Structure formats: structure tokens, C-alpha cells
């Protein structure tokens, strides 16, 4: 995934390589059990903007998105394959993996992930949501690559190394959570193995 941001100094880009894995359960034990699903492995895109905070495009969908990032990326790359059940998702993901033509497309704006900045990248409590228009995001492109999954975000956000499945703000449960309490480490980095 590549994100382009317009700045007074020109276009800035950031990119990250993700992997989508699909699993189908052989047999369901419970009647309401899902028959499978997809999971995204990778990390947030970081875009350095001169004179401003770094913009992070998360693995978490925005409120407007039509589904999880793995789902909307798969749909964008293979819009002609319906994905109403796990069998169709498997067909779509296999079609992407087996494609001989280079697959590249723009991610529809409504499916752009959540974007954030940090007033202090060493303090997860300083996270703030930033709207794509305010950030200057011009577009998000997804494409298929054989490159390895990106694993360098720990250097920018050192607190990611601790408690990989915890919320950014662990100060307690509340009926009116802070923005940091709505985010977890998995929104920045998922499935590192």
C-alpha cells in the first residue's frame, strides 16, 4: 500500500507491504461459528511530512470504510469477484496470488483506513486522529508484490515492542473512552511472525 500526501515541498509518499491470509474452517462445532475469514499481516504506513508530525495510516478501518482492510483491499484488486462468503473470498485471494498481470489500483476513498499523528512518537497517549483532507492525502494505491512484509515500525514507535495486544491507553475502562483507549497495538502492527 502506498499513500501520497501533498505538502508545500511537493508530494511525499509512504508505503508498507502487507500479506492477506485466508483460512477456511474444516468443520464448524457451533451453529453460529464462522466458516473462516481473512487476516492482514503487516504494519501501518508512515509518511514523513517536513515541518509536521509523521502521518500513520493504520490497519484499522475508518468509520466510513465498508469493511476490514484485508477485505477492502481484496475487493479493490478483484472487484469482479463477489465476496459474500469464505469460498468467494478464497477465490478472490487465489486469483490475486495467481495473477500474471501486474495488479495495481486505487483504494476507494470511502475505504481509506484511519489516519493518526503523535504529538510525541515516544508517548502513545499523544495520538490524535487526522482526517485525510487535513493531512493532505491525495490517494492510496494498492498493488501486488513479492516483497517481504514490512517490519520497521518499531523503530519509529518504540512502545510497540511492549504488550503487542494492548490498548494505547491502559488507564482503565470507561463509558467515554479517550481516542487512545480505542486503539490497540494491532491497529499499528499485526501478525508479525
Would you tell me the structural class of the helices and strands?
A: alpha+beta
SSE sequence, one letter per element: EEEEEEHHEEEHEHE
Count of DSSP helices?
4
Query: Globular, elongated, flat, extended or rod-shaped: what is the shape?
Result: globular
Query: What's the structural domain tally?
Result: 1
Task: Give the neighbour order of strands across the main sheet.
Answer: 2-1-10-7
Classify the helix fraction into a percent range: 10-25%
The average pLDDT value, as a whole number, equals 87
Count of extended strands: 11
* Model regions low in confidence, pLDDT < 50 over at least 5 residues: none
Describe the structure.
By secondary structure, the chain is an alpha+beta fold. The chain has one domain (2-24, 36-190). Helix content is 16%, strand content 30%. It has helices at residues 69-77, 86-98, 132-135, 153-156; strands at residues 2-7, 10-15, 19-24, 36-43, 45-47, 55-61, 104-106, 113-118, 127-129, 137-143, 189-190. The strands form 3 sheets. It has a 4-stranded antiparallel sheet. A hairpin with a 2-residue loop joins strand 1 and strand 2 (10-15). Helix 1 (69-77) packs across helix 2. The two termini are 20 Å apart. The relative contact order is 0.21. The mean pLDDT is 87.
Amino acid at each position: 500500500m502506498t499513500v501520497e500526501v501533498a505538502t508545500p515541498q511537493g508530494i511525499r509518499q509512504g508505503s508498507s507491504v502487507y500479506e492477506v491470509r485466508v483460512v477456511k474452517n474444516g468443520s464448524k462445532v457451533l451453529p453460529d461459528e464462522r466458516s473462516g475469514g481473512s487476516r492482514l499481516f503487516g504494519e501501518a504506513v508512515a509518511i514523513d511530512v517536513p515541518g509536521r508530525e509523521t502521518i500513520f495510516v493504520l490497519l484499522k478501518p475508518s468509520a466510513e470504510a465498508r469493511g476490514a482492510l484485508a477485505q477492502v483491499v481484496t475487493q479493490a484488486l478483484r472487484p469482479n469477484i463477489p465476496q459474500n462468503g469464505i469460498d468467494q473470498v478464497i477465490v478472490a485471494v487465489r486469483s490475486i496470488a495467481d495473477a500474471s498481470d501486474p495488479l495495481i489500483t486505487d483504494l476507494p476513498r470511502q475505504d481509506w483506513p484511519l489516519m493518526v499523528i503523535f504529538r510525541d512518537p515516544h508517548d502513545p497517549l499523544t495520538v490524535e486522529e487526522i482526517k485525510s483532507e487535513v493531512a493532505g492525502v491525495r490517494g492510496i494505491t494498492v498493488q501486488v508484490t513479492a516483497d517481504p512484509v514490512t517490519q520497521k515500525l518499531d523503530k519509529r514507535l518504540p512502545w510497540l515492542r511492549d504488550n503487542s495486544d494492548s490498548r494505547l491507553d491502559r488507564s482503565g475502562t470507561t463509558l467515554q473512552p479517550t481516542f487512545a483507549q480505542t486503539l490497540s497495538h494491532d491497529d499499528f502492527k499485526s501478525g508479525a511472525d
